[in-house]
Specification:
Blueprint lengths: L1 H9 L8 H4 L18 H19 L11 H7 L13 H19 L6 H23 L6 H18 L12 H16 L4 H16 L1
C-alpha cells in the first residue's frame, strides 16, 4: 500500500525509503523538496484553502471512491504536484491520495507562511474539515457504515501514509502542534483506545524523534 501511494503522489522517480512500509515511520527522501511545489506563498495559501473547500464538499457526499468526483480537487493540486496520479477503481487509495496531497500542501505552507500562526490556522482548518467529515459519516449509523468505513480508512491512510511529513521544516515553530493535529484523525475515525490510534501515535512519535 505505501509504495503504491508514494508512487501515485511522487511519480516513478520517487526515492522514498522502504523503511516506512516496515513500520518504523521514516519517510526520508534524498531531497525532501525535490517534488514540492514552487508556488509563491500567497498562491500556495489560496490554493490550499480552495482545495480544503472542495474536499469538504467531496467528503460530504457518498461519491468519494467513484473515480470521478475528486477531479475538482485534483485540478487545484496538479499545478503543484504534476506527477500526482489517482488509480481508477480503488476507492480507499483514491481518497488517501487526494487527502495526502492536500495534507502535503498544508505541510509545505508551514515552510513559507509569512507567520507561523497563519500556517497553524490553515492546518487546523484542514484537520477540522477531515474531522467533520469523519464524524458526520460515523453519525449516520449502520445504513451508511460501508461508506463511512471507506472514507474513514481513506482519510487516515491519506494523513498517515500518503502525506510526507518531511515537508515540515525543522525551523517551523508549530511543528509539534501540526503533528499532534495529525494524530487526532485516527481518534476521530476509530476512537481514542483503538489499536489503529495507538499505531498512529507510535508512527507520528517515531517521525518526530527521527526528524
Amino acid at each position: 500500500m505505501f509504495e503504491q501511494l508514494a508512487k501515485a503522489f511522487l511519480g516513478s522517480s520517487s526515492s522514498y525509503s522502504s523503511n516506512a512500509q516496515s513500520g518504523n515511520g521514516s519517510t526520508t527522501r534524498e531531497d525532501p523538496k525535490a517534488k514540492g511545489t514552487t508556488a509563491a506563498p500567497s498562491v500556495l495559501r489560496e490554493d490550499l484553502y480552495k482545495a480544503i473547500q472542495e474536499c469538504s464538499r467531496w467528503l460530504a457526499t457518498s461519491t468519494p471512491g467513484d473515480g470521478f468526483a475528486y477531479r475538482p480537487v485534483l485540478e487545484i493540486l496538479k499545478p503543484h504536484y504534476p506527477d500526482l496520479e489517482v488509480p481508477f477503481g480503488i476507492a480507499q487509495e483514491e481518497i488517501a491520495i487526494i487527502v495526502g496531497a492536500v495534507t502535503n500542501l498544508a505541510f509545505e505552507y508551514t515552510g513559507c507562511a509569512p507567520e507561523s500562526y497563519t500556517a497553524i490556522i490553515a492546518f487546523r482548518t484542514w484537520i477540522d474539515t477531515l474531522d467533520n467529515a469523519i464524524r458526520t459519516w460515523r453519525s449516520k449509523g449502520e445504513s451508511a457504515a460501508s461508506t463511512a468505513n471507506r472514507i474513514c480508512d481513506g482519510v487516515v491512510q491519506g494523513v498517515n501514509v500518503a502525506a510526507d511529513p518531511s515537508f515540515i521544516t525543522k525551523e517551523f515553530t508549530g511543528r509539534l502542534q501540526v503533528i499532534n493535529m495529525c494524530k487526532t484523525i485516527s481518534v476521530s475515525a476509530y476512537g481514542a483506545n483503538s489499536s489503529q490510534t495507538r499505531q498512529s501515535d507510535a508512527l507520528w512519535g517515531s517521525r518526530l524523534l527521527s526528524s
